[in-house]
Amino acid sequence: MKLWEKGTPVNEVIEAFTVGRDREMDLYLAESDVLGTIAHIIMLESVGLLSSEELIILRKELSVIYQTIQDGNFVIEEGIEDVHSQVEFLLTQKLGESGKKVHSGRSRNDQVLVDLRLFTRDSILEIASSVNFLFTALQQQSETYKDVLLPGYTHLQIAMPSSFGLWFGAYAEALADDLQLLLSAYHINNQNPLGSAAGYGSSFPLNRTMTTQLLGFEDLNYNVVYAQMGRGKVEKITSFALANIASTIGRMATDLCLYMNQNFGFITLPDELTTGSSIMPHKKNPDVFELIRARCNRLQMLPNEIGAIMANLPSGYFRDMQMIKESFLPSFGELQSILEIAAFMIKKVNVKKDILEDPKYSYLFSVEAVNEAVLQGVPFRDAYKFVGKQIADGTFKPSIELHHTHEGSIGNLCNNEIATKFQKIYATFEPEKVKEVRKNLISC
């Protein structure tokens, strides 16, 4: 079944190529398609394009289909092109003429647009929740190991003293900024494109404000041409936010792989969280962190892929956009699994104490010596040269006492302030509002 079919059969080779993986990808959108259809038919009844009796039976049947999807029993049958066609087919099969009316005033173009917006909204909320779990795990470790020092590096050369409190806390605060970008993507996505039809509106007296309210969108994409131009653009913006989170986690995974290396020896993992070698009995490999890094790197390519697909398209709809779904829709599940395993692993990291007692880290304290001389009245540049000469002639004797008290330093991590910053952003997502919208649409 094809919603556009007019009696001329399509060549099977052409059909297979153009449908591609749409039946597989559209299963991600099935729940959203039903929700969008319910909102649409409520609006159709309000403008006289459906009777109240038809609305009742259609909503009831759509709720049955929705439950089938939630139970994992929904399929897009062979010969049916996509999820939109499958839902309309099931309605028509069960209800006859009434089922044929649900497509009035919309096109598959705005139908897939609203499906993508609803799916993306739900998926962003799930990602935000998982970011929150990882943030909490990092902050807990930061507090646990706030007094344990480790070397800080620049250019992979020892630089200045750091601490595990700073290290764990740095990635926690990074997630706060990542969440802010995700929130921006959430707001851009959370606008209603439904009613733009094929991108040029409809002669039916549609009430787009009503569907906006029913679906819980914050606002409309008002201009119908721009609503269609949002296809690909919203996915690209969202993918930047996902890639940014992946960048943070991937960098953290690299640190952990280095720190677990015997030449660093800063952390260990329980044996059961590592893997071994088929020929080297001593090996305890940080494979989880390596795979996290690789998967994060792959996610960071997503904005480039979407941008390349959209790069030379004029306004209006083009089938090229179908290809974006194949990478975009699964990306949420990929990042979700990364966030979950990262939070699990972070809680299991064991930190080595007394690292800086090794003489090879003595030069970490050179800046402390310079600063101490400055506090005694020596001009900074003179103090710098004096300590530099001591290092050069081998007479430098470090003092390992630290006096870092300013905001965000070793002695003043500001974890509470960072948590406040993070939670202020996180609270803005309002997942309960989205759950209420879903509940109101499905209940009939």
Would you give an account of this structure?
With 444 residues, this protein is mainly alpha-helical. The protein has three domains: 12-101, Orthogonal Bundle (Fumarase C, Chain B, domain 1), CATH 1.10.275.10; 114-146 and 163-196 and 222-357 and 414-433, Fumarase/aspartase (Central domain) (Fumarase C, Chain A, domain 2), CATH 1.20.200.10; 358-412, no CATH class. 60% of the residues lie in helices and 5% in strands. The chain has helices at 12-19, 22-26, 30-46, 52-70, 83-95, 108-144, 164-189, 208-214, 224-260, 287-300, 302-310, 322-348, 366-375, 380-393, 415-426, 431-442, and strands at residues 149-154, 157-163, 191-192, 219-220, 267-268, 350-351. The protein has a two-stranded antiparallel ribbon. Strands 3-4 form a two-stranded parallel sheet. Strands 5-6 form a two-stranded antiparallel sheet. Strand 1 (149-154) and strand 2 form a beta hairpin.
CATH class division of the largest domain: Mainly Alpha
Rg (C-alpha, Å): 28 Å
What is the terminal separation in angstroms?
A: 28 Å
Let me know the number of strands: 6
Domain module count: 3
Give me the number of helical elements: 16
- How would you sum up the major sheet? 2 strands, antiparallel
Q: What series of H and E elements makes up the topology?
A: HHHHHHEEHEHEHEHHHEHHHH
What's this, in brief?
The chain is 60% helix and 5% strand. It has 444 residues and is mainly alpha-helical. The protein has 3 domains: 12-101, Fumarase C, Chain B, domain 1, CATH 1.10.275.10; 114-146 and 163-196 and 222-357 and 414-433, Fumarase C, Chain A, domain 2 (Up-down Bundle); 358-412, no CATH class.
